[in-house]
């Protein structure tokens, strides 16, 4: 495994580019590690040989060895959901990218590759993918006019001068039914 850039150099550059996290004991926000060298403290109810323990205990266990062997990994510092974990820490490193090809061939890590992955990750975190930006229709003047006319219609209905005069008892009404009409008027009504 020949490296184009040393891991120490890449990690130092990642700190200078992306910084440390002051709320997590000033740990680097991103780092490159070798999968076989990573261990983490976890609560477990099994021994190293697989026997069940009487009481769960904290043990130092391999982090990636059971599914990623012999590869470099770009990790990101993230908060750990304490309600759903067997980890003992509040913040920890999670994998962002494994340096390998699709056929699982090894790729040596490089700083430019790390920057591409990190920049893409941060750009996606800055916006919600798949969600369109909300455009307020009330900002459109034509929409406002349409809504005002619709509200006026709902509030005032089909009022005209005739309906207003009838409502305020200023209009003339004929309270007589059809039986009071003359036969000539009845024929014209029917």
Summary of the model, kept short:
The protein is α+β, with helices and mostly antiparallel strands and 190 residues long. The protein has 2 domains: 7-126, no CATH class; 136-170, no CATH class.
Characteristic key phrases:
190 residues, 2 domains, three-stranded antiparallel β-sheet, two-stranded antiparallel ribbon, 31% helix
What this model shows, in words?
The chain is elongated and about 105 Å long. A hairpin with a 5-residue loop joins strand 4 and strand 5 (52-62). The chain is built from five helices and seven strands. It has helices spanning 7-18, 111-126, 141-156, 161-167, 183-189; strands spanning 20-21, 27-28, 30-34, 39-46, 52-62, 72-79, 91-98. With 190 residues, the chain is of the alpha+beta class. The longest helix is centred in the middle third of the chain and has 16 residues, at 111-126. The chain has a three-stranded antiparallel β-sheet. The model has no long low-confidence stretch (mean pLDDT 77). The chain has two domains: 7-126, no CATH class; 136-170, no CATH class.
């Amino acid at each position: 495994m020949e490296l184009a850039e040393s891991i120490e150099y890449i990690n130092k550059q990642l700190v200078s580019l992306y910084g440390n996290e002051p709320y997590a004991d000033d740990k680097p926000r991103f780092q490159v590690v070798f999968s076989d060298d990573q261990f983490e403290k976890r609560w477990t109810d099994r021994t190293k040989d697989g026997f069940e323990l009487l009481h769960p205990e904290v043990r130092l266990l391999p982090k990636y060895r059971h599914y990623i062997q012999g590869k470099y990994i770009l990790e990101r510092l993230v908060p750990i959901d304490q309600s759903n974990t067997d980890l003992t820490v509040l913040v920890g490193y999670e994998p962002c990218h494994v340096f390998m090809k699709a056929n699982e061939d090894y790729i040596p890590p490089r700083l430019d590759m790390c920057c591409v992955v990190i920049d893409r990750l941060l750009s996606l975190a800055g916006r919600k993918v798949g969600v369109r930006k909300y455009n307020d229709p009330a900002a459109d003047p034509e929409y406002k006019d349409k809504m005002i006319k619709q509200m006026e219609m709902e509030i005032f209905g089909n009022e005209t001068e005739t309906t207003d005069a009838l409502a305020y008892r200023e209009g003339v009404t004929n309270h007589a039914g059809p039986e009071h009409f003359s036969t000539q008027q009845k024929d014209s009504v029917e």
